Structure formats: structure tokens, C-alpha cells
């Protein structure tokens, strides 16, 4: 499992990518999907996820829809119209960043 610092820095692009791919998701579903896609290597705690979602909502990038499921209110998050293109840009930027980091660490992999 990776450190909180690494995950914190990648949370926004992770959320935007998942919402772009899946339309709308609720918080627990996002956590489980990340866990599944990374074979349990990345585990996002709700204490990290929800502040990131609230921040994305405050920025106008995510909208929330409340739906009653099994006598409980579930909050579904989805990208806003304005964030669709931005999500793609951020995911592309992050992918390029990963390539750059990969080059950097291959150069200094003598540890």
C-alpha cells in the first residue's frame, strides 16, 4: 500500500477519471473501484475521499444527486458539463507526469 502523501496528490485525477468513465458513482463505490483496479495496492479511505469530492463540488467540477436506496440517502457524484473536458486534460497531464517520473526514476534506479 502507498503512503497517504502519494495518494493525496493523485486523488483528484483518480476521481475525475473514474467519473468520466462511469458517469456517476457514490463514494464507497469509488473507493471499491480503485481498490479493485489496483489489486488492493491503492486503498482510498473515506476520510480522504469525501473532502476531495467536496472540494471538487465547490470548484464546480462535480455535481451531487441524492437518491433514496434501501431507505438510505445515497449521494451520487458526476462530472458537470464544464468539467468533462477538464477531466480529460487533467488525466492526460497526469499520464504525462507519470511518464516523466518513470524516466527520472529509471535514471536514478541505482538504489
From TrEMBL:
Residues 15-85 form the Transcription regulator PadR N-terminal domain. It comes from the Bacteria. InterPro entries: Metal_resp_DNA-bind_regulator (IPR052509), Tscrpt_reg_PadR_N (IPR005149), WH-like_DNA-bd_sf (IPR036388), WH_DNA-bd_sf (IPR036390). PANTHER family: PADR-FAMILY TRANSCRIPTIONAL REGULATOR, TRANSCRIPTIONAL REGULATOR RV3488. This is PadR family transcriptional regulator. It comes from Rhodocytophaga aerolata. The lineage of its organism: Bacteria, Pseudomonadati, Bacteroidota, Cytophagia, Cytophagales.
